[in-house]
Amino acid sequence: MALLPILRFPDTRLHTVAAPVTIFDDSIRTLVRNLADTMYEAPGVGLAATQVNVHKQVIVIDVSEARNDLKVLINPRLLKADGIQFCEEGCLSVPGVYEEVQRALHVQVEAHDADGKLFLLEAQDLLAVCVQHEMDHLKGRVFVEYLSRMKQARIRQRIDKELRRKAA
Ligand code: GNR
Ligand code: NI
Fold first, then answer.
1. Residues flanking ion ligand 2, Cβ below 5 Å
2. Does any ligand 1 atom lie closer than 6 A to the CB of residue 47?
3. What is the pTM of this model?
4. What integer pLDDT is reported at residue 49 of this predicted model?
5. In a mutational test of the pocket of ligand 1, which residue from 45, 86, 131 has the highest number of ligand atoms less than 8 Å from its CB?
6. Candidates 8, 35, 91, 93: which one to mutate for ligand 1, based on the most atoms within 8 Å of Cβ?
7. Which ligand minimizes its atom distance to the CA of 100?
C-alpha cells in the first residue's frame, strides 16, 4: 500500500490545471490505487490527483458508509448541472476548515474508468458535491476560493499562525 503526501493550501501547486490522461496503462492504474489508499487512510470521501502533486485528470470518490463503493473518474466532463444545494465542505488540503458552499444539486458527468472505459455518472446530494469539489481541484481551484475575502483572510491568518508556531 502506498500513501501519498497531500499538498496543503496555500501551496501554489494546488492551482495547477491538470492535463487529460491520454494513455490508460499500468502507471494510471497504480496512481488510481495509490489515490484510493490515500483517500481511505486520510479518511476522506474524495481525492484528486492534483492534491498529491500529480497534474493529471484523475479523481477517486467514495461517499458510501461502508467505504466499499469506489468511483474512479478520469478526464471527467460535466454534461449537465441543475438545482442548488448548500453543503458544509471540508478538504484534505485545508485541514480543520469546514464552510458552507453553494453547489449544483444534480450533475451528470461523463468520465473514463481506470481501464479507459467511458461511463456516465448521475449524481445528487453529497456525491454531486464531491464530484464538483474534485473537478474543481483538477482546474486548480480549492473550495475556500468560493468564500468571502474576509473568511479567506481568516483562514490564511490561522494557517500562517500555525506555521509560525511549528517553526518556533
Ligand atoms: O473528505 C472530504 N470531505 C468532503 C466533505 C464535504 C464536501 C467535500 C468533501 S471532499 C473532502 C476530500 C477532499 O479534499 N477532496 O478533494
Ligand atoms: Ni479537496
1. 91
2. yes
3. 0.98
4. 99
5. 45
6. 91
7. 1
In the reported structure, the alpha carbon of residue 63 is separated from the centroid of ligand 1 by a whole-number distance in angstroms of 9
pLDDT by 10s per residue, the chain, length 168: 999 999 999 999 999 999 999 999 999 999 999 999 999 999 999 999 999 999 999 999 999 999 999 999 999 999 999 999 999 999 999 999 999 999 999 999 999 999 999 999 999 999 999 999 999 999 999 999 999 999 999 999 999 999 999 998
Q: Is the Cβ atom of 91 under 6 angstroms away from ligand 1? A: yes
CA of 151 to the centre of ligand 1 (A): 18
Judge whether 110 counts as a catalytic residue. no
Q: What is the pLDDT of residue 36?
A: 98
The span from the CA of 50 to the CA of 135, in Å, is 10
CB 50 within 8 A of CB 18: yes
